[in-house]
Each structure stands twice: as C-alpha cells, then as structure tokens.
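In full, the data:

***
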Amino acid sequence: MKKLFFLLAVAAALQVEAQEQTAQETARTFMRSGDFDNAILVLNRALQSEPKNLELQKELIMAYYYKRDYVKALEGVKVIMEYDSLDVVSYQIAGNVYKALEEVKLADKMYKKALKQYPKSGALYSEYGELLTATQNKDAIKYWEKGIQEDPSFAGNYYNAALYYSNAGDKVWPLVYGEIFVNMESLTERATAMKGLLLENYKKLFANSEIVKEGDKLKNDFSKAFLQTMDKQSPMANHGITTETLTMIRTRFILEWYKTYGTKFPFRLFDYQQQLIREGMFEAYNQWLFGTVENLPAYENWTKTHSEAYNKFTSFQKGRIFKMPAGQYYQSL
C-alpha cells in the first residue's frame, strides 16, 4: 500500500511538471508570435493551480512587460519579491519593469539586495551600472569594474566600461575593454559599433606624438606599460591610422609586450593576439576588427584577394569561444 501511495505521488508530481512545461511552452509560442493576451491567459490559468510557481510568475511578468502593460507587470514583480529566494533572472526581470516605470528608488534598492545575494553576477553589476548612468550617478563605472573583476566572462560590463572610458578621454581602457567585448560578442550591432569606437580611439591615441608622457602621469602600472609599449610604435603612425598600419603597430606591440611585460601582466587578450601572430592569422583578424568599419568595400576586396587567409581565420574563429579568466584584472579606480 505504501508503495502504491508513493507511485501515485510521483505520478502526480510528474503530471504537474508536465503541465508547467506545457503552459510555459505554449505561452512562449504565443509571445513569439506577438499574441501576448493568449500568453497571459495560459499563464494565469496555470498559476491558478500553482500560485507559488516562480517560473510561471516570471513568464507572466515578461508577457505583461512585452505587452507594455507595466502596471500589471509590476503587480507580478511585487509577488515574486515576497519569495524567500530568487534567482538572478528574477532580479533582472524586476529591474526591467522598474526601469520601464522609472521607479528608480525601487530599482536601486532591488539591485543592492540582488548583489548581496549574488556578488559575482556580472549581469547584475552591468544593469545596476546602467541604472546609475541613467540617473547621472558617477558611481556606475565602479559597478562595471566590479563586474569585470568578479565575473570576467560576462561581456556587458566590458561594453559599458569601454564606452565610459572613451567618453572620459582615457587612452588605454577603451582599447582594451572594447577589443575584449568584440571578441566575446562578435555578431551583434553593439559589436559593430564597438569596432568603430576602437578605430576612433586608436586615432586619438596616436594623434599625440608624446604618448609616453601621458603614461608617466598615470598611477596604474598596466596603463603605463601599455602606453610605453605603444609609444615605441608611434613612428609607424606617421602614415596614418589605417587597418594596415594598425596591423603593423599591434604586431610590434605584442612582440615588445612579451619581451618586457608578459610575465608581470599575463593577459588573455594579448595571449590571443600572440597566438594569431604565430599562426599567421593576425592580418586577417585586424581586417575583421578594423577593415569592416574603416572601409567595407576595401575589406570585401581584401577577403577576395586573400581568400585563403580569410577562410583560415573565419574557420578558426567559429570554432572558439573567447573568455577572460579570473585573476587578470589590472584596473584601479
């Protein structure tokens, strides 16, 4: 008899799980087609049986959010905020709703609570920094930097920090963080925009022939080393900053870096560049990085006249995922 009751309980639990999955999948199908009303109907009916089901609640909030019914979405957020434990995605969903309603104080309080629970979540640092930026709070960069330090494999903080440093006139970190971001998130519109930002910042860097003097003013040792090494390549900028000259400058930069600073500052981005140089793919990489935004017709012509090098690099690139490891953080605020 006990065995029978056990089997019945297991069967009931499996049935509930199947119903939950069916409700979520059905709702998502409706949302993908833009039928948010039907998605909301399905989820509300499912929640009648399981009012405390967090996954269904999250889906319902998102359905209201996509429908732009932010007031109803906020009602759902209030419900899940009463739960004893939430995952990172729940906090992200809540943050989106608070931002849509311009509930800055509620969002601020929520992100602080979320980061106490998940102090290594790059996504939460990134989004909290974006909230602070929207309110013109200068502490935003502190959170993006913390996100890079705690969760170096999350791309969003590199993107936000690169934009911040570019606007601030910094000569090092837009280049470093921007290139890391493009390698992590290579196929998006943000990546294309970042490539343009990289080219622009290289032009700004070499517009001043006394790069090393700028480095001498800095307290950060990594930044000093970066600028000192770049300064040695400065004569090549006399021909202008193009994809071709950047390929030469950056090749010599890497060779010089590993003679002088490679041991002191191990860095995955530079390791990757060194690997591409050794395997004869660095020119193709720089064409992909700068050529597409400098002169697209010229880049397309290069891919045709250098088809073997282009195909070798693109094949290699598709087979890898770029990640920054922990422990290679050199920024200091």
